[in-house]
Amino acid sequence: MLGAVTADRRLLLVHAHPDDESSQTSATMARYLADGAQVTLVTCTLGELGEILVPEWAHYTPTELGQHRLGEIGDAMNIIGVTDHLFLGGAGRYHDSGMTTDDKGRAAVPAEMPANAFWNADLLEAADLLVEVIRDRRPQVLITYDPHGNYGHPDHIQAHRVAMYATVLAASPSHRPELGAPWEISRVLWNSHNTAMWREAYQIAKDRGIELWPDNERDPDSFGPDPSQVVAVIETGPYLDICRRALANYRSQVDTSQPFWQFFQIVQELPGAGEAYMLGFGRPFPVSDGPASDLFEGLD
């Protein structure tokens, strides 16, 4: 057994790199911790190939950056309050795959990557590592990326594949019984941009003279899914200070003075803004007039 089930509501999040959890789901984690839920975060790599933004750290090798980001995610977990955090297969089992861009500026798989890159991981092997966690923690709700990895990062796509495969395998009584008793996750959610809020914030940023993509005007519809696909939103407002401190803690990756992060802060400040989710698998939310405000709604 890896751990112990300690709460009636149990949430499992699967992210690719350190900082992904703080930029995309920090309010969600903080909210459910405050509610007394069990919150487990699984990170798949150390983020060894992230872009280094601090000049005095520019000399770091990928190994050194990975070790530095270990400290950053540890500090972020303390800020958010997460005490159940683990790396898939142990810290360093899978290496950051890196990312390149194609001729249209879209995220793409690099031509070369480390031998143990997460993108090259055996899917069954990686999924079984997560199956053991699922059967031990027994979450009712699992959060990960959509099939495109939200914006195409190879490790985000792979995290999606591993999480979805593990969800199915963990529920099968015949699959690897030595990994624990079968457990069926009730609802898998894909974290997403809150498209309507991003559209509104984009216009505000332009009005303030913040140049996000000076060479390429963005289509507002490209910010995320059709708003009709968003089934739940966890408001950022009550946890805004926690969210900002956790993200700013990642100094190697995040410079909050840069235009994109100024834009991101505008998004967070909009009335009703929050972390948005699509239904990826499992039990739908009860019918309502808008997105649910509780990820466990209808499961009790």
UniProtKB/TrEMBL annotation:
NCBIfam families: mycothiol_MshB
Entry's Gene Ontology BP terms: mycothiol biosynthetic process
Entry protein name: N-acetyl-1-D-myo-inositol-2-amino-2-deoxy-alpha-D-glucopyranoside deacetylase
Repeat as UniProt keyword: no
EC class of the enzyme, as a word: hydrolase
Coiled coil residues, start to end: none
Domain of life the protein comes from: Bacteria
GO MF entries: metal ion binding; N-acetylglucosaminylinositol deacetylase activity
Pfam families assigned: PIG-L
Lineage of source species: Bacteria, Bacillati, Actinomycetota, Actinomycetes, Propionibacteriales
EC number annotated for this UniProt entry: 3.5.1.103
Keyword Nucleotide-binding belongs to the record: no
Record keywords: Hydrolase, Metal-binding, Zinc
